[in-house]
């Protein structure tokens, strides 16, 4: 096992953390009021860097979920008719308010999720941008009007809010996954019930309070953290008053929700798991490829759906690439996210860490060489040493499953056809990365790779102005870009008799 130095938390830092935690709402937000759960049950939220409890949060039950949907339904008509400009201004104020609370939101995220403060601040910036983007879109929703080709009718196409939405979010981006759904929903005129992940409810609760302060009316955003997710969300999905389900999380849970949604033919958006290939061709700029690999692999400690999961490198440059990547990865500072210069924090929990350890052990048992890392980090918390594996055998589990940790497996290829076949050999299709000096090859890859998103000579592609989402079992629908708001709009067509007679 590797040991990583973890400096003591100073008394100043401890006081800052206690003060922040004391000010964060920990009840449910239903109809504009902060309320305990009807059973009065609460659950603990843990710091994954220490395994210690941070605080407890009200644990919503079935009745609380129902009350939240009642509140969203009650607020729908008024919010849906609120002038688009007014909705835009509420969202713009929310953007400003989130930015103003960057320090608090970032620290809270680091405490409950583990990523470094620098990464958390980056997430606040990224997450806030969805509020600004949606505020800009809110007043630009348009339909169309045209004569039918035979001239006998007029075609009127109108857009209207889909209606009350259930939004279910994961723990890995506690703020951005919430803003990426709430912002377009509100811009479109929908009210929402948010069920954040039980691992990271605090960021969502503080964000909801910020939204209240920014002027989001009562009942428009309701938040129900809970430990029995299926019990609470099942009845809501079955309720005909719910008009939209937007889920971000694992493919396994997404499939269950799709089955439930099928009964009521409920509209769904699904942002599911990934298994991103990272291709490095022989004509790539290797310095840039190593830099991009660091970002694509270690962003969020590897706990990202967009994380590079499999590195396929041309055999002519594989040794050089792996060695340089391993040197960079070995120098990364692993620590509690609040420490100065922290780069990689702990994994979310022991289950997540055991999965990473099992996947690495499997690859090593099939002949992979550990260039750096390859083991748990001793001490409290759920740390795993950032790892680079070379000569990974095809068939190793970690080439097929989401690793969700700081592990970079490198395998080789010899031709573009082979690289494309390897990249596409997965049921997932969220994102792919490719480093190449050839523009023609890059454009061929856009056409050849089965993916919703592609990073060409870049290791980060998330952008509020771009449509985020996957193909195959990585999901249905898009978030952000021009497309994001469409997920929350219904299209109504009216055929109108020829006004000339
Ligand atoms: P998860 O599927 O376990 O949980 C996601 C959310 O669903 C949580 O709020 C959880 O409480 C809830 N949930 C779990 N079981 C449920 C059920 N039966 N009914 C209703 N809700 C239920 O995923 P996770 O571990 O929180 O997040 C990691 C996964 O999310 C990874 O697979 C990752 O790729 C994916 N992810 C995808 C995107 C994307 O945009 N495609 C973004 C971030 C994360």
TrEMBL record:
The Aldehyde dehydrogenase domain, residue ranges: 34-491
Keyword line: Oxidoreductase
Annotated catalytic residues: 271
Gene3D superfamilies (UniProt xref): Aldehyde Dehydrogenase, Chain A, domain 1, Aldehyde Dehydrogenase, Chain A, domain 2
Source domain of life: Bacteria
Swiss-Prot/TrEMBL GO biological process terms: gamma-aminobutyric acid catabolic process
GO molecular function, one term: succinate-semialdehyde dehydrogenase (NAD+) activity
Presence of keyword Transmembrane: no
CDD domains, alphabetized: ALDH_F5_SSADH_GabD (cd07103)
Family the entry assigns: Belongs to the aldehyde dehydrogenase family.
Official protein name in the record: Succinate semialdehyde dehydrogenase
Highest classification ranks of the organism: Bacteria, Bacillati, Actinomycetota, Actinomycetes, Kineosporiales
């Amino acid at each position: 096992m590797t040991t990583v130095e973890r400096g003591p938390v100073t008394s100043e830092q401890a006081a800052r953390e206690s003060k922040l935690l004391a000010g964060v709402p920990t009840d449910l937000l239903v109809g504009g009021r902060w309320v305990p759960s009807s059973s009065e049950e609460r659950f603990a939220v843990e710091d994954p860097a220490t395994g210690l409890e941070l605080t407890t949060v009200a644990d919503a039950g079935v009745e609380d979920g129902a009350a939240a949907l009642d509140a969203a339904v009650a607020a729908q008509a008024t919010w849906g008719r609120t002038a688009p400009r007014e909705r835009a201004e509420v969202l713009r104020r929310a953007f400003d308010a989130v930015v103003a609370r960057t320090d608090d939101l970032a620290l809270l995220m680091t405490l409950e999720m583990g990523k470094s403060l620098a990464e958390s601040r980056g997430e606040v910036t990224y997450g806030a941008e969805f509020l600004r983007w949606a505020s800009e879109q809110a007043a630009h929703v348009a339909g169309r009007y045209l004569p039918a080709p035979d001239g006998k009718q007029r075609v009127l196409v109108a857009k209207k809010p889909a209606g009350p939405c259930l939004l279910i979010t994961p723990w890995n981006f506690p703020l951005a996954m919430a803003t990426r759904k709430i912002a377009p929903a509100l811009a479109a005129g929908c009210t929402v019930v948010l069920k954040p992940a039980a691992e990271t409810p605090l960021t969502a609760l503080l964000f909801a309070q910020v939204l209240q302060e920014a002027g989001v009316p009562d009942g428009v955003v309701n938040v129900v953290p809970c430990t029995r997710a299926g019990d609470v969300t099942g009845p809501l999905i079955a309720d005909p008053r719910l008009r939209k389900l937007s889920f971000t999380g694992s493919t396994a849970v997404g499939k269950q929700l799709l089955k439930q949604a099928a009964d009521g033919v409920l509209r769904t958006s699904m942002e599911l798991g990934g298994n991103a290939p990272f291709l490095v061709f022989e004509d790539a700029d290797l310095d840039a490829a190593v830099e991009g690999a660091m970002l694509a692999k270690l962003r969020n400690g590897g706990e990202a759906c967009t994380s590079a999961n499999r590195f396929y490198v041309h055999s002519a440059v594989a040794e050089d690439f792996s060695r340089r990547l391993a040197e960079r990865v070995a120098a990364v500072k692993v620590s509690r996210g609040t420490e100065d210069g922290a780069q990689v924090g702990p994994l979310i929990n022991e289950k997540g860490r055991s999965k990473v350890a099992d996947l690495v052990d499997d690859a090593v048992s099939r002949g992979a060489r550990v260039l750096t890392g390859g083991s748990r980090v001793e001490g409290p918390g759920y740390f795993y040493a950032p790892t680079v594996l070379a000569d990974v055998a095809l068939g190793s589990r970690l080439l097929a499953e989401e690793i969700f940790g700081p592990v970079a497996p490198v395998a080789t290829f010899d031709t573009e056809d082979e690289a494309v076949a390897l990249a596409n050999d997965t049921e997932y299709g969220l994102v792919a990365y490719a480093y190449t000096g050839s523009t023609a090859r890059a454009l061929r890859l856009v056409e050849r790779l089965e993916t919703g998103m592609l990073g060409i000579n870049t290791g980060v592609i998330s952008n509020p102005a771009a449509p985020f989402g996957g193909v195959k079992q990585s999901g249905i629908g898009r978030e952000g870009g021009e497309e994001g708001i469409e997920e929350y709009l219904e299209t109504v067509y009216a055929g109108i008799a020829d006004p000339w007679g």
